[in-house]
Amino acid sequence: MSSWFEKCMPRIKDIKPNISTILDSFKKEANIKSLYIWGSYAQNINKPNFRVKDIDIIAKTNFDIGDLLAIDEQIIKNKYSDDYLEDQGYNPNVIKFSKSFINLKKCNIDCWAISSNRKLLHWGPLLSKKSYSESIIKKAEQHAIEITGYSKNNINYISEMNRKNWYNSYCNYINDFFEDMPTGWYKTEDIKIKEIIRQAIKI
Question: Both 107 and 198 in a single domain?
């Protein structure tokens, strides 16, 4: 039987019994003081059959925003020594943190970080303003509806294969939109940290 994170758009009740174990392990490994779940998982935590596209996790860090923004997928893939990285202007601890964090993406986790100056960053391309990002998400969902014939409200009632088709259509639209942008940390502009923390679930 597949693990919960191998399922397409798993339900809250599939995720809930397992998520703390995964996040606790990351928290210790990356030496993170605070971790939060937010987004659709946190908003629908009391709806066991609600299906999420991904799980939004925020790591509160003491890292400078400039050190985070300097990191991209390429620097993480290369196995440079700490001395070399420091000579090139990188913070090796930020690279270790980022590498450990994005490893969780295999569990369908969307990675967010709060910098030392309380700015919210996302691993992977996104539009800086929340309203723009929400617009793209709505367009991606509409694209998935047009391709599959199923709305987001039908997700719980269709087969795993049809759900995968819907989700893949959604993801393809998003990926096509950002295909020319490198993978790394991106800063958001208009999201208030206090509001996010208020709505989030601390791990």
Answer: yes
